[in-house]
């Protein structure tokens, strides 16, 4: 089970979220433990589905179509269950909840939360975003900024993971320290 937390600034503690969510999930909904990603705004649960069985020598297009079909069937067949579980998670942790699945080589996320972020950018940063919009890479500055964030995330993933680990250690030390209140 992969778990990622962004605990800084959390309004409702999520220390028990992984265990609680694992307990509330219906037995057999996924082939193994889910990946649970938690940040300030959203809880994302990504489970693994069994890969479809195809005839030997199936083309890559056939495999992709079969995986898409398996995901579509899962999404439709489990909709009521997932809604019921999501409501409980959202109520307990005061965050939006989203689902995703991995099936074979395909990952699909369902209705993830898009959180607005306010930022002030100086002209050089705005020019970068405007260049991406003018070049057709993005339709809006907002899309261009999201594209930049994804790009940095892809190229700095190990550094960001190390930083998150270090921040988690600082949070642990704060909790262990004296209570000055």
Key words describing this protein structure:
181 residues; five-stranded mixed beta sheet; alpha/beta; 15% strand
Explain this structure:
By secondary structure, the chain is an alpha/beta fold. It has two domains: 1-115; 117-181, no CATH class. The protein contains six helices and five strands, in the order βαββααββααα. It has helices spanning 17-24, 60-77, 79-93, 123-134, 141-155, 157-176, and strands spanning 3-5, 35-38, 42-49, 96-103, 106-110. The chain has a five-stranded mixed sheet. A hairpin with a 3-residue loop joins strand 2 (35-38) and strand 3 (42-49). Helix 4 packs across helix 5 (141-155). The two termini are 36 Å apart. Residues 6-10 have low confidence and may be disordered.
Quick structural overview:
By secondary structure, the chain is an alpha/beta fold. It is 49% helix and 15% strand. The protein has 6 helices and 5 strands, in the order βαββααββααα.
Tell me the number of structural domains.
Answer: 2
| Overall body shape | globular
* Gap between N and C termini: 36 Å
Question: What is the chain-wise order of helices and strands?
Answer: EHEEHHEEHHH
Fraction of residues in helix: 40-55%
Q: Stretches where pLDDT falls below 50 for ≥5 residues? A: 6-10
Kindly report the spatial arrangement of strands forming the biggest sheet: 1-2-3-4-5
Please state roughly what percent of the residues sit in beta strands, choosing from under 5%, 5-15%, 15-25%, 25-35%, 35-45% or over 45%: 15-25%
Total beta strand runs: 5
| Main β-sheet description | 5 strands, mixed
Radius of gyration: 20 Å
């Amino acid at each position: 089970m992969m778990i990622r937390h962004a605990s800084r600034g959390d309004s409702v503690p999520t220390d028990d979220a992984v265990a609680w969510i694992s307990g509330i999930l219906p037995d057999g909904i996924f082939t193994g433990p889910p990946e649970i990603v938690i940040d300030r705004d959203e809880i994302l649960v990504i489970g693994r589905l069994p890969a479809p069985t195809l005839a030997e020598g199936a083309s890559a297009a056939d495999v992709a179509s079969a995986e898409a079909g398996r995901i579509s069937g899962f999404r439709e067949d489990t909709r009521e269950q997932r809604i019921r579980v999501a409501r409980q998670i959202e109520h307990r942790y005061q965050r939006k909840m989203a689902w995703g699945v991995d099936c074979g080589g395909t990952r699909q996320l369902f209705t993830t939360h898009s959180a607005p972020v306010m930022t002030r950018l100086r002209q050089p940063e705005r020019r970068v975003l405007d260049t991406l919009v003018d070049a057709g890479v993005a339709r809006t500055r907002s899309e261009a900024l999201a594209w930049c964030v994804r790009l940095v995330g892809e190229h700095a993933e190990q550094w960001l993971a190390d930083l998150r680990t270090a921040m988690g250690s600082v949070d642990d030390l704060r909790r262990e320290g004296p209570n000055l209140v």
